[in-house]
Specification:
With about 60 residues, the chain is an all-alpha fold. It contains 3 helices and no strands.
Length: about 60
């Protein structure tokens, strides 16, 4: 059984009053993951910018 199937089975057994809290937690996890991806992208961009700005790099990409 996949993780998604297991989650669906558990959700079906959760009392109605807990579903709102469960939904809130899932949305929190998704937002946290997105924020971390954005932060990593920003950090990567600044460290890679040094290489992107080199004349050799511009030369390598000029024919594309």
């Amino acid at each position: 059984m996949s993780t998604k199937d297991l989650l669906l089975t558990e959700i079906e057994q959760v009392p109605e009053f807990l579903l709102a809290e469960l939904l809130d937690f899932l949305q929190f996890l998704k937002a946290k993951h997105l924020k971390e991806k954005i932060e990593i992208s920003i950090l990567s961009e600044s460290s890679l910018a040094k290489d992107w700005l080199k004349p050799e790099e511009a030369e390598a990409w000029q024919d594309l």
